[in-house]
What does this fold into?
Amino acid sequence: MNKQLAEFVGTFALVFFGCGAAVVGGMGTGPTAVNLLGIASAFGFAIVAMAYGIGPISGCHVNPAVSFGVFVAGRMSATDMVGYWIAQVLGAIVAAGVLYLILSGKSAGWTGGLGQNGWGAGYLGEYNVVSAFVFEVVATFLFLVCILGVTHPFAPTGFAGLAIGLTLVVIHLVGINITGTSVNPARSIGPALVGVASNPERVAQLWLFIIAPLIGAGAAGFLFQKDGVLDIKKA
It folds into this structure.
């Protein structure tokens, strides 16, 4: 398995399990329902699993914003970053497509949702665009601070995947009601494109879930440029 294939598989797993928990379990009632903690945990545990599964191959970015932050921090080349981006977006699209096929087999109750990110009237907590943008920038920044810190050679080995996964759980607990929680352009692109027929407005809102995470990730990467260690003096 090469790095790009590993990123494809890892991003597929993240979207399939995370968005799958939201749309399959989220549609249930009683003991089969998945609550907010369950959905957040599905995203986080998927990252933990992939961190140990493909981490030794590609670093388990499974997120264009993570790759961008790593690039800004000086830990990967622009060519590798673009290759990762392509693999990640394709993995997310294919995962959303598989979820679509599965959900299409439900006799009733499915409205075409695939866990798309969004904001505004009719979307979860109905937060406005400013709230959505600020959350995605701040959450992605903090996510990258964790990732760049725990993957540094000075950090204790063996626990990076667990720390990153648990951080993603916390981010989702805060953000699901605001934007559905993206902090990952690929995770947003896949479900939005595959589900465009039933939710075209989510494609129109994709710009935020591309730009805001890249800003947050770039800021974190900038702070880690000096010898790969967090440099608060730059802030």
